[in-house]
């Protein structure tokens, strides 16, 4: 039997094939996955980096904030928004005097559409984004750090789980990606 130092030296000199042979055999059992009948999708939030955020190169930082928080990305695309989609998205504001300007702004350049998934993602995303009026947003929030004007406030986030579902369906007609993050066991009890 080799000592651990001898095994390391042998593995170093013998290469990967020899190293694998020296490792003890370990039975790895795949984790049980829930069946489709009992699987429940986690809460989702639709997040959109608006044209000003895209033009200013803020996309990477915004994505990074959600990744570092531990949320799972379920949809992502750079998108030139058709007027009909912008109008449908903001239909609840159609009676407001700024509605036409808002729609024109959203269709003025590409946006980055994202769907993030996880426990409490809607409420947490709203806190991360900050108040609609950037001047009322706390430092450390996305709008508090990057925006000054209400009309150019960098980002949109769903305001309820129901709107998260509705908005994801509107912007991701092709569906979302279902995948398992390897870090999930490190984030959940």
Automatic annotation (TrEMBL):
GO molecular function: ATP binding; nucleoside diphosphate kinase activity
Positions that bind ATP: 50, 98, 126, 132, 143, 153
Enzyme class: transferase
Nucleoside diphosphate kinase-like domain location: 42-178
SMART domains registered for this protein in UniProt: NDK
Keywords: ATP-binding, Kinase, Nucleotide-binding, Transferase
Gene3D superfamilies documented for this protein: Nucleoside diphosphate kinase-like domain
A Pfam family that the UniProt record links to this protein: NDK
Protein name: Nucleoside diphosphate kinase
Naturally occurring in which organism (per UniProt): Astrephomene gubernaculifera
Organism lineage string: Eukaryota, Viridiplantae, Chlorophyta, core chlorophytes, Chlorophyceae
